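Posting for a labmate who doesn't have an account.
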Amino acid sequence: MRLTKPLDVDATPAVASREAKPTALLSRARFWTFVQYAVMALLAITMVTPFLWMISTSLTPEAYVLSARPQLIPEEISLESYAELGRRIDLPRVLFNSILVAGLGTLGQIFFAAMAAFVFSRMQWRGRNVVFMLYLATMMIPGSVLIIPQFILVRSLGWINTYAALIFPSLFSAFAVFLLRQSFLTLPKDYEEAAFVDGANWFTIFWKIALPLSGPALATLGVFSFMGLWNSYLWPLFVARRDEIMTLPVALSFLQSETRALTEWNIVMAGSVVAVLPIFAVYIVAQRWFVRGVVITGIKG
């Protein structure tokens, strides 16, 4: 006769408790995941709503802009605001000026910042860190403090109402040097040592090794620089007084300073849409490299 082991009465509740614990943890993890997605969705809606409202207002006829019951989707969609914007300002010329200034300024800033960052990161020379810290300390000086000295310098050079006044002061940026220096520091030294063995000089290493390997950081700087130059208002207001070289932010400011009883917000919002679209296009093109550059250089939003 086979003897059987008596059943352990207390074993069944223990097994059940062990099986219930992972289920409870899984439910809690799903709950916090749902909360995180809900918070991110709320933040996304909060960020996108002003842009949607801007587009909606630009497509709304003037008679319905200040209605007592505002609507995100207008009952009547009209492009008259954009047509009137083209009549108020020389839109093709203004866009050309802004694209020229932002494009050349961005390319120049990337080039000069990359050379300075390469010297500060890869080349060994006495006092390098001290000079870099002093140069980096200029970031603490507010930009508004530098406007008067820069204006006096530009006026003495005869650059008032020229593209040179809009472009050259933006070519040198301590932030741009810092950003690219952080990227160059991550490059292995084996590359430049191998290049020296093959007979390369410092400029060859900079042009053919450092720059191609720092594409994400260059794209990140390009987006930041283009946005800053495209949206610049105060400096162009000082040095670009003629309509022939006026940039878009300065031209749009005159839409609210005209002698009218009320600001025509549909035209102002149409100008804002025109101003936002190029920045959005630049970000879409450089999005992949921009994200990688932010991760590599250690910048956190």
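Reply:
Got it, the structure tokens are right above this. The mean pLDDT is 83.
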